[in-house]
Amino acid sequence: MREIAFSDCWYWLLFAAVVSYFLGCINFAVIISKAHHKDVRKIGSGNPGTMNMSREFGLKVGLVNFLFDCLKGGVPVIAVHYIFANYVFAGTDVLVSDVVRYLVGIAAIVGHIYPVTMKFKGGKGIATTYGVFWFGIGCENPWYFLFMLVGLILVLLFILVTEMGSMGSLLGVTAFSVWQGTMFYSRYVGAMNGYVVFLLMMLLFMNFLTWFSHRKNLVRLFAGEEHRTSVKKLHGGKRGMDNM
Description:
Number of helices: 11
Shape: globular
Structural class: mainly alpha
Largest sheet: 2 strands, parallel
Strand order of the largest sheet: 1-2
Helix content: 55-70%
Strand content: under 5%
Radius of gyration: 19 Å
């Protein structure tokens, strides 16, 4: 491992975060819906995200949207992971790749939720956050990709049984962040320092971003007014695939 001082790489980390933010600003829900001569922001819940796309255009279109949103969170994460894979911060055992991949991940999530290209009114960040975790955890060990897939299946099963889409999605985000946080803690438990604290704080902040973006959903949920997410009704979309 090669040591590198923060003062010698901060501008590269900042550059990577800025690029990731603007990548996050690309809203595929708007692009895909406009390709079908509609604007997802003006139909259904008005949210330019996977769930509204699934309700309005069908599960297949929703899954395509989910995949693209995952990739815009995951691609920058895995890119910086391999760029900085052989570096540790000077005087520590903390991998630069551990810090930078969640730094750019947060930037992509913020770009999705608060895109400057859409007057800071974007989606709610679940798919992009899943992408950050999927690639962020998975790049450490290829088997983790399989475990993440199992985790996503469990989230879908929760939504299928309870029809609580927002809560199922948020619980999935929290579970993945706890998993990654536990991995970081076990790795650095004997060498806690400012970088490790920053790592754990970033995971906490990712949870805050997604839960905060769903605050209205949570209020409706606790009031018993939240719309149920029926997977059966998602198939074919609210208007049907033939009407796209």
